[in-house]
Amino acid sequence: MVVNSPSPLPERAIYGFVLYLGSQFGFFLYCLWAFIPEEWLHSIGLTYWPQKYWALAAPIYLLVTLVIIVVLLFGVNMNNTAPLDSLDNMTDVYAKGQKTTDCNKGGIPRLKDIDISEVNRMFYLSPKL
Amino acid sequence: MEDETFTDISGKAISLDCQNHSSLCREFVVSVPKVSIGKVMVYTCCVWLLAYAVFFFTENTAVLSSAIFITLVGMMLHIHFVKVDHETLLVIGSLGIQLSSSYASGRETTTFIEIGKIKDIVINEAIYMHQIIYYLCVLLKDPSEPNAVSRVVPLFQSSKPRLNCLMKVYKSCQEILSKC
């Protein structure tokens, strides 16, 4: 079974270099389209390209979307956090439905979600060792 | 009672006063420092300078009068509804507990919870904004289902003391609650 690891490999280096060359070339083409006047492009025969307005508008839209995504992510996370008076901070459906009986009295206790009152007693009421 | 310095979660100093009225009755008062006159003056000056700057450019006197009105109304609403002066927890064994918040304007809100509804008083940790804080809360139970928690009432919400203060209150409360 092949283990997936993030270490550098020759194939990954080749992929990275291809992506680098491709993105540099794509940027060069974008700059060509943005700077060459419309008449020259029409005279070559390339008539059905987007308006030059989008050469500026598209990057700005992209950056504004990025900023809004960052703010929105933070906001959505804070909105989904349970408030301090919610029961979700104490327990949930799975903890309430777990089996409470111990099958084997002498052995290691079953792994379970411990009640918060018991946890508090252990932390704050037990004498310091 | 020794007065080791307690702080709230953001580091501002608060004070805790525990009173032992009897073996069954204890009262804990967490006091927040009062509104400082320096801060009030700084805020007022900033708002009024800003209003004067706007007036300088727009030549509209309504800006000045509205700034004064908004400042006054805002301060009154703040001390009446927002600024808590001290919060009290009164535990009476086999009777119940009483939570009370007293605001800077003198207004007091009080809640009484009878002992039949109280399951336990615990310290829990939860995510609050960008940090995880300890907070003291009362677990309420339905008399019909004594093993399940029906509601959670967080205590000391406006003063938000840190763990050392909460531990003192918790140990004291458990002494009384375990007797009844």
TrEMBL record, chain A:
The chain crosses the membrane at residues 12-36, 56-76. The keyword Transferase applies. One of its GO terms (cellular component) is endoplasmic reticulum. Its main location: membrane. GO terms for molecular function: phosphatidylinositol N-acetylglucosaminyltransferase activity. Part of the complex catalyzing the transfer of N-acetylglucosamine from UDP-N-acetylglucosamine to phosphatidylinositol, the first step of GPI biosynthesis. Belongs to the PIGP family. This is Phosphatidylinositol N-acetylglucosaminyltransferase subunit P. It comes from Eleginops maclovinus (Patagonian blennie).
Automatic annotation (TrEMBL), chain B:
GO terms for biological process: GPI anchor biosynthetic process. Residues 88-157 form the Phosphatidylinositol N-acetylglucosaminyltransferase subunit H conserved domain. InterPro entries: PIG-H, PIGH-H_dom. The chain crosses the membrane at residues 40-57, 63-82. Coiled coil: none annotated. Pathway: Glycolipid biosynthesis; glycosylphosphatidylinositol-anchor biosynthesis. GO terms for cellular component: glycosylphosphatidylinositol-N-acetylglucosaminyltransferase (GPI-GnT) complex. The keyword Transmembrane applies. Keywords: Membrane, Transmembrane, Transmembrane helix. The keyword Transmembrane applies. Pfam families: PIG-H. Belongs to the PIGH family. PANTHER family: PHOSPHATIDYLINOSITOL N-ACETYLGLUCOSAMINYLTRANSFERASE SUBUNIT H. This is Phosphatidylinositol N-acetylglucosaminyltransferase subunit H conserved domain-containing protein. It comes from Eleginops maclovinus.
